[in-house]
Design a protein that fits this description.
By secondary structure, the protein is α/β, with parallel strands linked by helices. The protein has 3 helices and 4 strands, in the order E-H-E-H-E-H-E. Helix 2 links the parallel strand 2 and strand 3. The longest helix has 12 residues. It is globular. The protein starts with a strand and ends with a strand. The relative contact order is 0.20.
């Protein structure tokens, strides 16, 4: 899942928490993206179970490489990408 922090209705962190609370989706990898450069939000997202937090503007090659690494099981450590 690639999830933006800013969403209408329910924010991305709340959406992530909903995903991770459902046992069927517990192992689904999530990359969170945002234009917000807020250390507290970034840390909360990683603690909630996201594999990565990427700051916009995105480098699509880095996003693609990260997604592939996560899907191949090589990107399990949560991180922030600037």
């Amino acid at each position: 899942v690639i999830l933006d922090v800013v969403l209408k209705g329910m924010d991305g962190l709340e959406t992530l928490l909903q995903i991770k609370q459902n046992s069927e989706f517990l192992d689904v990898p999530v990359i969170v993206i945002s234009a917000r450069h807020d250390d507290a939000v970034e840390q909360n997202v990683l603690r909630a179970g996201a594999q990565a937090y990427m700051r916009k503007p995105l480098d699509l090659q880095i996003l693609t490489d990260m997604a592939l690494a996560i899907l191949e099981g090589k990107g399990r450590n949560a991180r922030i990408v600037q």
